[in-house]
């Protein structure tokens, strides 16, 4: 195995660094505490959602309902959690649990996750519309304070990213249970033979995804101060792209939490970078697609070197 | 194999149930209108669903997320070229299909040359198609030529013309899948790519032609939908992303690939329209409607999969 193939994390780091350097070159004023915070503010909920998607991809499934789920969590946060904190907390807890149950059901009945989550996206979206038929609600004061806090030395978004990456890295890459969870994606049967209950592990992976999905919704409301039922629908595709940009694979339990966080930040930065380039708004979405393709093309170098060795 | 174990049965049963439940409310009045509307709107879902079915048949991980963008781009460019002038319907069709062919080739090039996972490749490419559509459309709403609009909203032998198109395509796909070498190659590739390659199936050719077919189907659906609804809109394809996957799976095709089901796609397409009109006529709000739609989708998937397990 070559150096590059062993250290897959280099690719996301280099892409983020290149994009960041290009952004600073275009707009030197972004190179400040305030500028960085503006650039990466909205990346925090996306990073949390990407981690949630990563938990699902880790066990060889894919979640098409994540955007709707994050929107629902945001709606609950902006209404119940603000008006009746205890009840709000209970609902959010129930959402996390329902994700765990979903994982267990998908495994027990051998259902295709892509379809079940597709159906669930209607369910989450429907409940969100029920709770908040029109945009509104308000962010709880403590959440607003937390998301706009100004820590010394580095802006909130950067500090949050480091914390998210560190916690999930410890959980998924370093801890015993994290290794087993990745093993479910690698070879579920041998994990079962080793005496683990795969259904519980899948429930755990989905439960973790639910937890991070809820956190993403809360973080989003803390930044946006209100919510609506469609606030985070684009997160479904963004989170999948973020996981892959971060060096993850769709199968085999090959994921990287740090990479996923960096991937989410790269995607967010790509959008800001394009607006700094004064590109016509018509082409911004397309250029985002082009950047995505470009970064993923770089994966070829890693993949081929890895397989040759 | 008995009739009961046919996977497509469930989508048709569900569609029939939704149909009769809706009519139960009106005690039978409006059956013709409801059926006509279901066939018209179901046709678009069926056409994109047939394309998506071919791709999903290729095996795990194969799915085309660029369908909505391809629909929008094909419709936009076709309507722009026609510019509401009479007698240009054929030109528009050719342009739409050419756009579909182009996006199909582009999608496959990304998948093959850059070895991207199809989900990511079609997702990233769809962003570019979307930009192209925005750039060429510029918010204009060009009406389709009158003759074409009449065709898209018209009927023949009591059935909507778009349903005839969808039906013809379904029969074509069914014959190709069941009776042609290409169809057998596709199924073999979906069942086991490695084995198919070792058995001499030109796997990459099959994959390329499949990704081109789905894009051509999507462009045709976009062309018809824009003619049907009086112009192309940038968000016209949006709902067909989830719809195309949903009709394939509800229709009884295996999401794991290698097993496709043409009649089920039509049943599911009718069902997806009928269930919404059923919930509407029972006065369900948007929230309740979505929750029930999702629950029903999952219930059908569970019913279909436990059925398969037993037989």
Explain what you see.
The complex is a heterodimer of chains A (309) and B (311). Chain A has one domain (3-308). The termini of chain A are close together. The model of chain A has no long low-confidence stretch (mean pLDDT 87). The longest helix of chain A has 28 residues, at 281-308. By secondary structure, chain A is mainly alpha-helical. Chain A has helices at residues 3-6, 10-26, 33-40, 43-58, 66-78, 80-83, 85-108, 113-131, 141-147, 156-174, 176-193, 198-224, 235-245, 257-276, 281-308. Chain A is globular, with a radius of gyration of 19 Å. Chain B has 311 residues and is mainly alpha-helical. Chain B has a single domain, classed as ABC transporter involved in vitamin B12 uptake, BtuC (Orthogonal Bundle). Chain B contains 13 helices and two strands; from the N terminus they run H-H-H-H-H-H-E-E-H-H-H-H-H-H-H. In chain B, helix 3 crosses helix 10 and helix 4 runs antiparallel to helix 5. Chain B starts with 8 loop residues before the first helix and ends with a helix. Classes of the chains: A mainly alpha (309), B mainly alpha (311). At the A-B interface, helix 8, helix 13 and helix 15 of A face helix 5, helix 11 and helix 13 of B. Chain A: One of its GO terms (molecular function) is transmembrane transporter activity. Chain A: This is Ribose ABC transport system, permease protein RbsC. Chain A: Keywords: Cell membrane, Membrane, Transmembrane, Transmembrane helix. Chain A: InterPro entries: ABC_transp_permease (IPR001851).
């Amino acid at each position: 195995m070559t150096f590059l193939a062993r250290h897959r994390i280099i690719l996301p780091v280099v892409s983020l660094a290149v994009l960041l350097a290009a952004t600073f070159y275009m707009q030197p004023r972004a190179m400040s505490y305030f500028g960085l915070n503006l650039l990466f503010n909205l990346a925090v909920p996306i990073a949390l959602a990407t981690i949630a998607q990563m938990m699902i991809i880790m066990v060889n499934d894919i979640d098409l309902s994540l955007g709707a789920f994050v929107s629902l969590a945001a709606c609950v946060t902006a209404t119940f959690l603000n008006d009746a904190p205890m009840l709000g907390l209970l609902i959010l807890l129930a959402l996390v649990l329902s994700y765990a149950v979903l994982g267990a059901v998908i495994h027990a009945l051998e259902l295709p996750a892509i379809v079940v989550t597709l159906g669930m996206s209607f369910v989450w979206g429907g409940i969100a519309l029920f709770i908040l038929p029109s945009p509104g609600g308000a962010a709880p004061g403590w959440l607003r304070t937390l998301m706009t806090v100004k820590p010394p030395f580095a802006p909130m978004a950067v500090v949050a990213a480091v914390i998210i990456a560190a916690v999930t890295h410890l959980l998924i890459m370093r801890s015993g249970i994290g290794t087993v969870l990745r093993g479910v994606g690698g070879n579920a049967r041998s994990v079962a033979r080793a005496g683990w209950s795969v259904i519980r592990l899948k429930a755990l992976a989905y439960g973790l995804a639910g937890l991070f999905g809820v956190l993403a919704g809360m973080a989003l409301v803390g930044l946006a101060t209100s919510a609506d039922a469609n606030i985070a629908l684009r997160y479904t595709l963004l989170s999948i792209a973020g996981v892959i940009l971060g060096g993850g694979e769709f199968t085999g339990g090959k994921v990287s939490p740090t990479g996923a966080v960096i991937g989410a930040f790269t995607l967010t930065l790509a959008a800001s970078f394009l607006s700094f380039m004064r590109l016509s708004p018509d082409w911004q979405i397309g250029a985002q697609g082009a950047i995505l393709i470009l970064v993923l093309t770089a994966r070829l170098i890693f993949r081929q070197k890895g397989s040759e060795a | 194999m008995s009739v009961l174990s046919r996977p497509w049965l469930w989508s048709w049963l569900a569609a029939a149930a939704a149909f009769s439940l809706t009519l139960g409310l009106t005690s039978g009045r409006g059956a013709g209108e409801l059926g006509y509307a279901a066939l018209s709107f179901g046709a678009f879902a069926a056409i994109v669903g047939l394309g998506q079915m071919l791709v999903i048949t290729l095996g795990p991980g194969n799915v085309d997320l660029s369908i909505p963008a391809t629909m929008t781009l094909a419709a936009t460019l076709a309507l722009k070229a026609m510019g509401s002038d009479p007698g240009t319907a054929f030109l528009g069709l050719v342009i739409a299909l050419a756009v579909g062919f182009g996006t199909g080739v582009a999608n496959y090039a990304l998948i093959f040359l850059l070895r991207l996972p199809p989900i990511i490749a079609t997702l990233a490419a769809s962003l570019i198609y979307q930009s192209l559509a925005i750039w060429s459309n510029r918010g204009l709403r060009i009406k389709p030529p009158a003759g074409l609009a009449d065709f898209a909203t018209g009927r023949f032998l009591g059935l909507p013309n778009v349903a005839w198109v969808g039906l013809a395509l379904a029969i074509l796909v069914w014959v190709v899948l069941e009776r042609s070498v290409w169809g057998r190659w596709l199924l073999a590739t979906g069942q086991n790519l490695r084995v198919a390659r070792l058995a001499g199936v030109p796997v990459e050719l099959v994959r390329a032609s499949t990704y081109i077919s789905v894009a051509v189907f999507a462009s045709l659906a976009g062309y018809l939908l824009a003619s049907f609804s009086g112009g192309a809109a940038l968000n016209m394809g949006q709902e067909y992303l989830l719809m195309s996957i949903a009709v394939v799976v509800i229709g009884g095709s295996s999401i794991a690939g290698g097993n496709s089901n043409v009649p089920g796609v039509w049943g599911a397409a009718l069902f997806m329209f009928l269930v919404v009109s059923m919930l509407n006529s029972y006065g369900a709000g948007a929230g309740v409607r979505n929750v029930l739609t999702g629950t029903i989708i999952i219930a059908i998937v569970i019913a279909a999969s436990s059925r398969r397990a037993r037989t």
